[in-house]
Write a structure and sequence with these properties.
Largest sheet: 12 strands, mixed
Number of domains: 4
Strand content: 15-25%
CATH topology of the largest domain: Nucleotidyltransferase, domain 5
Bound molecules: zinc ion
Helix content: 25-40%
Distance between the termini: 51 Å
Radius of gyration: 27 Å
């Protein structure tokens, strides 16, 4: 007989881990017990050598689907003669156990929901230890029912029996519920509960072309019939969201296969338990045009709660977009339901409070890798590994697409996608969530990192903490985010093509090449700078970037002649001459805007990046030829000179070559630029690894093209996967740099 004590850490609470231990112990005739602790699960087992070994093997190699065992240490101890296994009460104390993200409904629960003989038949809140809400219902840890928004629901005897039965898949399933004892749906019209079956009322409203707000896991969605053009257009008007694509929920994988092109990787991602929105290529036009106008891609998700399964029962597709006006944060509190009145004709809600706003995640599959464009539901708060420094770090993130991150040990806990901090409601959530993370992960920041930009709210927040502060240049953070994600410790090259961010020299950067490591990188190259006419306003006026570039490439008179609105152009250039509101930038995002305008794809934009997205979609792979960037060496730095490229693009535009050809030739030029600059820098530095990051690399043609061209030259190429390539990944890069800085004896913070 042997006896072992086991310390198991990772995501091992709220995921059916102790029932799993119980079943394994019973199978192997082991005695002992298991209990939840602050760090995970503590267990003791007693039995034969072979049985103990088999148990340890199962823990390490075959845990339940949602569990993630980070470590399982076993230490021999004196046998006690125990022959039965028990689940002991949780131990209170310090908090390091990981919290599971919200998980899509499992097959077993789905079967019950559609089984007329089951007591949970058509019950929208069915869940078990393998699925259901987690992060969106947790108030405090340990993760016990009393610390969740299920606290108010007292389990009926039947549910209680499941909850107490170690062999049941609902053993200690904290959100366990049934029609007797759990949350209930209600259907509100004009703020009052309507009589009748809420699901039937929902169906009737949708069929009439109306919009219904639906309370989900992390907030309210707005739903309407995705095949009813009038319904979708009306929703756009009400949301004041005129062009940004809407996401759709499709009934099942079959439907998705019919309406979209699906690779095996995309199928797997779409149907995985995290259930993100996956950006897919449309096939045919069965859905309303105004869902994603002018866009070849469609954001698709499959039902991820039993409620969704019931809503999709008799239909193929619903528009399911976040419940907010324009770019404001999604509404998630019951108290804010009245604010939905202008957006929806009715509200399908329920009485289980949402503890925090968590948006849908957005992902693509590219080069066989899942790449997150927005990291939120299904992923948060699962940590991303990061080489820590022994101190707790809070990285404040950027301003747009903000996320923050808290590093403890070698785990980076990224907050859910916040959005743009200019919004006061977003700013409030930002501060609240940072406090919540500190509480949930029992981590008080000892060190903070932020952007160089003094006016970002995230920077001001970080400064207000009174901690040692590491300011991090925006694009170096992008560079470091790739190096840290792939744990690249050698010196590498980085190409960071982005919108705009403040540079070391006070200029606006965004088309940068770096050489170095997380700890130390130098600016090895950048785009030839041009003025942003009218400052940030140029983001929504791509024609201004085209004008500024044309002036430098062709001279003022010719540039003005090419302008459709010469009067306004002259005013902007005169202001620039007078030094008014025309900061100099080296932003690749803005050069994409310029080309989009030259190509006639888009001269004004309703959201940042719209012109670049449409330019990518316009690209015609059949077009021959390529433009060229010049590479000029100036004081040890490579300048990416686009002047000849702009002249060629204008010549094509005037000769009627078409947007497809102009776009394709420009994309090829960008790929060739990265390859040629990398080759030059490899000779100078010996670096054989290349990191690609920044918002422009959301562009598939660019990302795929750069991977292929660089790999053909023998480079090892990396980009972001677990954190977004856009500003949603900035916090992670900031944290990596802060951790590396503090470990450097030359640093004043060492
Ligand atoms: Zn389940
Ligand atoms: Zn019940």
């Amino acid at each position: 007989m042997r006896r072992y004590r086991l310390k198991i850490s990772g995501i091992v609470q709220g995921v059916g881990f102790r029932p799993f231990l119980y079943r394994e112990a019973a199978r192997l005739s082991l005695g002992g017990f298991a209990r939840n602790t602050s760090y995970g699960v503590y267990a003791e087992i007693e039995g034969t050598d072979a049985a103990c070994d088999a148990f340890l093997d199962a823990v390490r190699n075959g845990p339940p689907p949602l569990a993630r065992v980070v470590s399982a240490e076993a230490e021999p101890m004196e046998p006690k003669g125990e022959s039965s296994f028990a689940i002991a009460a949780s131990e209170p104390g310090a908090r390091t156990a990981l919290i599971s993200p919200d998980i899509g409904v499992c097959d077993a629960c789905k079967r019950e929901v559609f089984d007329p003989a089951d007591r949970r038949f058509r019950y929208p809140f069915t869940n078990c230890t393998d699925c259901g809400p987690r992060f969106t219902i947790i108030r405090d840890i340990p993760y016990d029912r009393k610390n969740t928004s299920m606290a108010a629901f007292v389990q009926c005897p039947a549910c209680r029996d499941e909850y107490d039965d170690p062999s049941h898949r609902r053993f200690h399933a904290q959100p366990n519920a049934c029609p007797e004892c759990g949350p209930k749906l209600s259907f509100l019209v004009n703020g009052k509960e309507a009589a009748g079956d809420p699901l039937a009322l929902f169906g009737a409203y949708i069929e009439r072309g109306l919009t219904v707000a639906v309370k989900g896991l992390g907030g309210f969605h707005l739903a309407c019939d995705a095949q009813n053009e009038a319904a979708v257009s009306r929703l756009r008007q009400r949301k004041a969201r005129y062009e940004k694509p809407f996401a759709v929920m499709l009934r099942d994988l079959e439907t998705a296969r019919r309406w979209c092109e699906l690779s095996p990787g995309e199928e797997a991602l779409l149907s995985c338990r995290r259930k993100p929105i996956v950006l897919l290529k449309k096939r045919g036009e069965p859905l309303a045009d105004s869902i994603a106008p002018g866009n070849a891609r469609l954001g698709v998700m499959l039902p991820y709660t039993p409620l969704h399964c019931l809503l999709m029962e008799n239909r193929g597709a619903l528009v399911l977009t976040s419940g907010n006006v324009s770019d404001r944060p999604m509404i998630y509190r019951d108290a804010d339901i009245p604010a939905l009145a202008g957006l929806a004709d009715a509200v399908l809600t329920h009485d289980r409070p949402i503890e925090r706003r968590v948006d849908d995640s957005v992902a693509v599959v590219s080069r066989g890798k899942v790449r997150l464009a927005r990291r939120a539901r299904g992923y948060v708060p699962e940590p991303v590994p990061l080489r820590g420094c022994g101190r707790v770090i809070l990285a404040a993130g950027a301003q747009q697409k903000n996320t923050f991150c808290l590093v403890k040990g070698n785990d980076a806990f990224l907050g859910s996608h916040m959005g743009d901090l200019d919004d006061p409601e977003t700013e409030r959530s930002y501060c609240e969530e940072i406090s919540a993370f500190e509480r949930l992960f029992d981590a008080s920041p000892e060190l903070a990192a932020c952007d160089l930009h003094p006016d970002y709210l995230s920077t001001r927040f970080a400064e207000s903490l009174g901690l040692p502060l590491v300011p991090v240049q925006h694009h170096r953070a992008h560079f470091a985010s790739v190096l840290a994600e792939h744990d690249i410790r050698e010196n590498a090259l980085g190409f960071i093509f982005d919108g705009t961010g403040l540079g070391d020299d006070g200029m606006i950067w965004g088309g940068e090449a770096f050489c170095g490591s997380v700890a130390q990188s130098s600016r090895a190259g950048h785009l030839l700078p041009f003025p942003l006419l009218g400052g940030e306003a140029a983001v929504r006026e791509p024609w201004r970037c085209a004008l500024a570039a044309a002036e430098l490439a062709l001279g003022r008179e010719e540039a003005l002649e090419l302008c459709e609105n010469r009067g306004e152009a002259e005013v902007l250039l005169r202001a620039r001459d007078a030094g008014i509101n025309a900061p100099i930038c080296s932003s690749m995002g803005r050069l994409f805007d310029a080309i989009a305008s030259v190509a006639g794809v888009r001269r004004t934009a309703s959201y940042e990046g719209q012109a670049a997205v449409e330019l990518e979609q316009a690209a015609d792979a059949r077009a021959q030829g390529s433009y060229r960037f010049g590479l000029i060496e100036e004081g040890g730095t490579l300048i990416f000179d686009w002047r000849a490229l702009i002249r060629d693009a204008w010549r094509d535009a005037l000769s009627g070559a078409g947007a497809g050809a102009i776009s394709m030739r420009f994309h090829r030029a960008c790929v060739a630029l990265v390859r040629d600059a990398a080759l030059r820098l490899r000779v100078q530095t010996g670096c054989g690894a290349v990191a690609l990051s920044g918002g422009c690399f959301m562009n598939e043609i660019l990302l795929e093209g750069c991977f292929a061209a660089l790999e053909a030259e023998g480079f090892r190429v990396y980009s972001n996967e677990a954190v977004p390539v856009n500003d949603g990944g900035i916090c992670y890069g900031q944290a990596a740099i802060a951790a590396a800085t503090i470990k450097n004896p030359a640093s004043p913070l060492f």
